[in-house]
Amino acid sequence: MNLDCTCFRVRRLSRHISQLYDDALRPVGLRVTQFSLLSALKKNGTMTVTSLADYLGSDHTSISRALATLKSHNWVMLTQGGDKRSTLVEISNLGLEIVREATPYWSNAQQRISDLLGSGTKLELDKGFDELFMRLSEL
């Protein structure tokens, strides 16, 4: 593989950033993927599994697998939607509590990334990532 490959660079960086966040969230027993799911539900309210996957830019299978773990901790509630093929996901009171508890740890990880990059560079990267995501979503 050519190390000049954009995909390689993004995946390598993603692994390191995910590890930094996972390490930061470890004291509350969360992984960054779980925190992201719970935060999305906190922000948006009840969602279908499909809409949650779309919102997070993930696939239905990965989201369903992650939700099973969250459900086992009673952090989310799953119910059948109006359409028998859809499942509704709602954050529970315990889920809201774990997000509140985890947020300072997540904020520390965010600050570490910002400190490493510098705030201007971080803002530029965030904007560039969001723009690229939107363009790729249109393909």
UniProtKB/TrEMBL annotation:
<dbReference type="GO" id="GO:0006950">
    <property type="term" value="P:response to stress"/>
</dbReference>
<dbReference type="InterPro" id="IPR039422">
    <property type="entry name" value="MarR/SlyA-like"/>
</dbReference>
<protein>
    <submittedName>
        <fullName>MarR family transcriptional regulator</fullName>
    </submittedName>
</protein>
<dbReference type="InterPro" id="IPR036390">
    <property type="entry name" value="WH_DNA-bd_sf"/>
</dbReference>
<dbReference type="Pfam" id="PF12802">
    <property type="entry name" value="MarR_2"/>
</dbReference>
<feature type="domain" description="HTH marR-type">
    <location>
        <begin position="1"/>
        <end position="139"/>
    </location>
</feature>
<dbReference type="GO" id="GO:0003700">
    <property type="term" value="F:DNA-binding transcription factor activity"/>
</dbReference>
<dbReference type="InterPro" id="IPR000835">
    <property type="entry name" value="HTH_MarR-typ"/>
</dbReference>
<dbReference type="InterPro" id="IPR036388">
    <property type="entry name" value="WH-like_DNA-bd_sf"/>
</dbReference>
